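Have a think about this chain, C-alpha cells included, and walk me through the fold.
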Amino acid sequence: MSSTQDAVRERYRAKALQMADAGCCGDGCCGGASAEDGCGTDYTAAELAEVGLDGSISLGCGNPMLLAQLSPGQTVLDLGSGGGLDVLLSARRVAPGGHAYGVDMTDEMLEVANRNKAQAGIDNATFLKGTIERVPLPDASVDVVISNCVINLAEDKGEVIREAFRVLKPGGRFAVSDMVELRDLPAPVKQALDAWAGCVAGTIPVQQYRQLMVDAGFEGVDLEITNEQAAGGLPGAIGSAAIRAHKPLGLG
C-alpha cells in the first residue's frame, strides 16, 4: 500500500470513529470552510427522512442522487461509500427488485455504514470491503456507478475510471460528484499527504479528467463545475464537478 493510500485510510478511519462517537461529520472531505460548514447540506430533508438518517454521515462534495436518475430494478455501485448515505438512498430508489452496493477500504467506515443500514431498515444494500481500483464485483454487473468526492483521492484515477467502465453494463451510466483542479496548485500543496487526503492535492484539471474518461471508453462525457473553493492560497483553485457519462451499448 502506498503512503498516499495510507494517509487516506487513516483520515477516514478517524472520521468513522468520530461519527461513531459523536454522530457528526467534523471536517468535510473537500477542505475549506465551505465544505466543513456544508457537510451533508446538498441532501434535502425529504431525502434524509427516506433512510431515517441525517447529513452528518455525508463527507462528499455534492449529491450524486441528483445525477443518477435511478429506477426500480437497477443495480447501483457507490465507489468509496463511507458512511453509506448514498448507498442507502440508492437502495430506496431501486426497490423493488434492485440492489445498491458500496465499496470502501476502511473497516471502520464499513462498520458505520452497516450500522446505518440496520438503523434505516434497508435490506437491498450491501457494503463490500475493497478498493475503488479493484472492485469485488463481476464485469458488466452494474447499471449505474456513483461516487461522492472519492476518485480524486486515488493515485491512479485512470485505473479507477477503467474499473468503473468494467463493472458497468452496456449502456450503463457514470454519475459522480468529484473535486477537480481549476488553477495550478503550488508544488508543496500537491506533494502534501494531508492535502491529498483532504481532497485538494489529488485533484486533476478538468480536461485531464475528461480525457481519462474518453480513454476508458466512455461516451457523452459531461463535466459541470458546481462550485469553486480556495486552495493553496489561491481563490477558485479547486471546484466540485458533476460528472456524467455512459458506457456504449454493445460492449461487455
Remarks:
- The chain has one domain: 3-246.
- The first strand starts at residue 75 and ends at 79.
- Confidence is low (pLDDT under 50) at residues 22-28, 30-40.
